[in-house]
UniProtKB/TrEMBL annotation:
It catalyses: [E2 ubiquitin-conjugating enzyme]-S-ubiquitinyl-L-cysteine + [acceptor protein]-L-lysine = [E2 ubiquitin-conjugating enzyme]-L-cysteine + [acceptor protein]-N(6)-ubiquitinyl-L-lysine. Residues 10-33 have a biased composition (Acidic residues). GO terms for biological process: protein ubiquitination. Might act as an E3 ubiquitin-protein ligase, or as part of E3 complex, which accepts ubiquitin from specific E2 ubiquitin-conjugating enzymes and then transfers it to substrates. Gene3D superfamilies: 1.20.120.1750, Zinc/RING finger domain, C3HC4 (zinc finger) (3.30.40.10). Pathway: Protein modification; protein ubiquitination. This is RBR-type E3 ubiquitin transferase. InterPro entries: Ariadne, ARIH1-like_UBL, E3_UB_ligase_RBR, IBR_dom, TRIAD_supradom, Znf_RING, Znf_RING/FYVE/PHD.
Amino acid sequence: MGDDSGYGNCDDEFYNGAYDDNDEGFEEPDSDGESCGSIGEAFSCKVIRKESLLAAQKNDLQRVMDLLSLKEHHARTLLIHYRWDVDKVFTVFVEKGVEQLYKEAGVSVVESEYLSSSHVSSNISCEICYEDVSANETTTMDCGHCFCNECWTKHFIVKINDGQSRRITCMADKCYSICDEGKIRNLVSVRDPQLAEKFDNFLLESYIEDNERVKWCPSVPHCGNAIRIENDKYCEVECACGLQFCFNCLSEAHSPCSCVMWELWLKKQEKESESVDWIKKESESVDWIMKNVKSCPKCHKPVEKNGGCNLVQCVCGQPFCWLCGNATGLEHTWTRIANHECGRYKDEHGQEIERARKELWRYTHYYNRYQAHTESLKAEENMKEKLHQKVAALESREFKTKDYIWVLSGHYRLTRARQILLYSYPFAYFMFGDELFKNEMSSEENTIKQNLFEDQQQQLETNIERLSMLLEEPFDKFDEDKLSETRMKIINLSAVTDNLCKKLSNCIESELLGPLQQATHIIAPYRSNGVEKASEL
Ligand SMILES: [Zn+2]
Ligand SMILES: [Zn+2]
Ligand SMILES: [Zn+2]
Ligand SMILES: [Zn+2]
Ligand SMILES: [Zn+2]
Ligand SMILES: [Zn+2]
Ligand SMILES: [Zn+2]
């Protein structure tokens, strides 16, 4: 999914002219962004509905059965072992040969002659229960092991109830051959038809649960669909039920945040939300520390600090410690301030507390912005209805041009970019914080990268707010000239914003995370068209 040149939702009459109000924070579209032809972002994910699950599974089974001339249950055993990766089965077949392929998966394909020969004698002694039973009361598996039906049935029921339906092995000592699902089904359904049905469902669901390319849609209540992807699992998809999610971690779509970062962020939020009041209180005290003016512990008048000394004196005559705010005596030496308990140990403790406060302050900075943009996104999503009304109002007027696609595509661009922007805050929190990359970047490197990132992020933010403002304007009441001007601005801003999103994502991928070689922080690529909608299988 490496396509970043696709250009979606753009107007037919894309405006390429210069934007006249080109002041700071505004950026011209890159030359490659000016082409409008939709090269298209590869569509590679499918929605598998309940009804099509069986067909999807059958299709993969058939491919393996055809290639290796196998029975269905052997093909299934192979595919379950290789996690429904048909290509993997073919690769192992080519590279290691058919025997090794079967052995690794526990498939026994024995000549039928051998199987029938075990039925020659009419009475057989079962080696599990030591009963003598007639041959038609026994079952022989593909591995050649034969036991009485009673023993097999008990064995299968235990395994199915144990959740091991997909890999029920033979009862014989040291035999790891997988039992024939048809024989299992027949024996179990005699004793417990419902359990046999359950067994079938387990086999069917294996197609999803043992398959790295297929996952259940995480919707609640569950829509019943699964999503199958063809390429990279680090992507964002939209199920037929409308839910958008990250295919890799099944959380909400969160790029340009990595899955690991997003998980940490959610945990952090959970932890901090337990004590929102505490945060507020702490933020205030952080504020207090940061300020150059503090209030006197005696008369509460503001006192300013001059120079580096942490013993300050109020106009009322009260000396106090700048670090902790407590009243002290006046005399002090290099090591000790009179009547004050800020000893060496406590000073270190104080630094520790200050570090914790700074860390909290830092978190609050990112959290507040993340939260603010989340709120904006909600408000802007609700804006859509109003925009439809504006378009309707415009269409009823007698203008020469009747093309108002730019209104809704501008709105689409706004919400899409807002999404990128809001998730860029948790990303930045972890990218430039101590938690993940402290040992992989020097603090100088960190600062350079942070500046680079923030320049782009702030540029994006500026343009998003402009686009938002323009779309809020009552342009349905504008005269034709002013309307045309607004239209051009919105079209141009949409393109610029899309490019800035692209740029920010590229920066994250190649300049921020790239050099760290963090295989754990793979980010779903930016798509102009947004999260990919899964198409019907
Ligand atoms: Zn037996
Ligand atoms: Zn066996
Ligand atoms: Zn769904
Ligand atoms: Zn994820
Ligand atoms: Zn005072
Ligand atoms: Zn001093
Ligand atoms: Zn103190």
